[in-house]
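Lab notebook: predicted structure, single chain.

Context: the supervisor wants predicted structures on file for every construct in the current expression panel, including those that have not yet been purified. This is the next one on the list. No modifications to the sequence; it matches the entry in the shared construct table.
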Amino acid sequence: MAASEEASFEQINEALVNVFNNVVWIEEASLRESKFNDITIKDMHTIAAISMYETRTASQVAEMVHLTPSAMTSVIDKLVKKGYVERHRDDNDRRVVHLALTHNGRTVFRAHEAFHRGMAHSLFDSLSDDETEAVKKAVLNLQEYLHELIQF
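Prediction complete. Output recorded below exactly as produced.
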């Protein structure tokens, strides 16, 4: 790698680390300063995994947020107690429990989704079509790389 390419790589690497750290910090600070200050980032991502649009089982959510089933049970118990999530038994198989968001859960879900959509819009708003495709390809490549690391 030439010196200029190495400098460019290091600049991009540093920017990616900075973006990741700032996103986490902003999410945490936003939660602390909101009426939803009783939940953590892990709780928020669990709420996001449950989704507003479909029900999921605790096992499905645990897999999505990379927690063990027992750890997921603890997180779900807290979110139920705080009024963000509710459990519903399956009508056909009473052993299966589906998770759904309450009104408060849906409200914080929408706020979290708006934050992430705002980031994406700020990234793409000033780009040409070609630049948008290049960023899309780079982000999807990064997503694939991270997915492969998770599969170890």
